[in-house]
Specification:
The structure is a single chain. The protein is 35% helix and 21% strand. The protein is of the alpha/beta class. The protein contains 9 helices and 12 strands. Helix 8 links the parallel strand 11 and strand 12. It folds into 2 domains: 121 residues, Nucleotidyltransferase, domain 5 (2-Layer Sandwich); 162 residues, ATPase, nucleotide binding domain (Nucleotidyltransferase, domain 5, 2-Layer Sandwich).
Length: 304
């Protein structure tokens, strides 16, 4: 679908909510950001509706509405699940917003929005299969195939962070406890807190991930060793993705994607774990940064 209509995208986050308006070419017409109402489902609905109405009033046109949110809509119940904004869990958010706005609303996981944005006109532009991996406080991913988000029958395609770290070494078993109730999840190793936890375990000293990266660049041996372990674990985790999905490109987002050395080092490391004589998958940095989620929400109405 690409009929030239105004497209509105909303990134519903735990602390902030952002709206963007795009034209048919992806040019940004408007952007607004407000604090997300805390612990109040009805207030959140009202805030979302207000953002849409004010954007349309300012632009003098009605648009399609797409929303990216933590968690996903259950295919069985139509209710939101798995959101870190817990007041949204168990709520019929799509149905309620459609009632408020008087039109169809498309909602998907924020990682899917990131992947769609980068596939459309970002780091994965022109690729048939894009795996968009977010490495931040947590780890998530979305999969886009020929311009369309792959959801799956359980609406969990791309939930990469809650698989176990592949090919674990003895000192990686059973792995750190994860909030999902298991241990040794990929998220516990390759998130920002995962790097910090590993450094603390090795040195007995706490440090923020950004400081570990900066100190490694200045030649700090302990920080360099922690970052090398991080890269090798990320290479194994992404090799597992390549073996299953075989994407043309993997685009990284989230705070850890700003580590420039990943893009050279990780592809050099993942080869032994990939079941192929060579690896043509590219590892790319995102183009749209923090804007990818909200832009991808708008592009939910631009899928083929």
């Amino acid at each position: 679908m690409d009929d030239g209509r105004l497209r509105l995208g909303i990134d519903l986050g735990g602390t902030k909510t952002e709206i963007v308006a795009l034209d048919a070419r992806g040019a940004e017409l408007l952007r607004r950001r407000i604090p997300t109402p805390q612990g109040d489902y009805r207030a959140t609905l009202a805030a979302l509706a207000h953002l849409v109405r004010e954007a349309e009033r300012e632009l003098g046109a009605n648009g399609t509405v797409g929303i990216g949110t933590p968690g996903s809509i259950s295919r069985a119940t139509g209710l939101l699940r798995g959101s870190n904004s817990v007041c949204l869990n168990g709520q019929p958010i799509r149905r309620d917003l459609e009632t408020l706005l008087g039109r169809e609303v498309r909602i998907t996981n924020d990682a899917n929005c990131f992947a769609l944005s980068e596939a459309r006109d970002g780091g994965g532009k022109g690729a048939d299969v894009v795996f968009g991996a977010i490495l931040g406080t947590g780890v998530g991913a979305g999969i886009v195939v020929r311009g369309r988000v792959l959801d799956g029958p359980n609406a969990i395609a791309g939930e990469w962070g809650h698989n176990p770290l592949p090919w674990p070494k003895d000192d990686e078993r059973p792995g750190p406890a994860c909030f999902c109730g298991r241990a040794g999840c990929i998220e516990t190793f390759v998130s920002g807190p995962g790097l910090e936890r590993d450094y603390l375990r090795a040195t007995g000293e706490p440090a923020k991930s950004r400081d570990i990266v900066a100190r490694a660049a200045r030649g700090d041996a302990a920080c360099a060793a922690a970052l090398a372990r991080y890269e090798e674990r990320l290479a194994r985790a992404l090799a597992h993705v390549i073996n299953i999905v075989d994407p043309d490109v993997i685009v990284l987002g989230g705070g850890m994607s700003n580590i420039e050395r990943l893009y050279a080092n990780v592809p050099r490391l993942w080869g032994p774990w990939v079941f192929s004589d060579r690896v043509d998958t590219r590892l790319a940095r995102n183009v749209h940064g923090d804007s990818s989620g909200v832009r991808g929400a708008a592009w939910l109405w631009g899928e083929p």
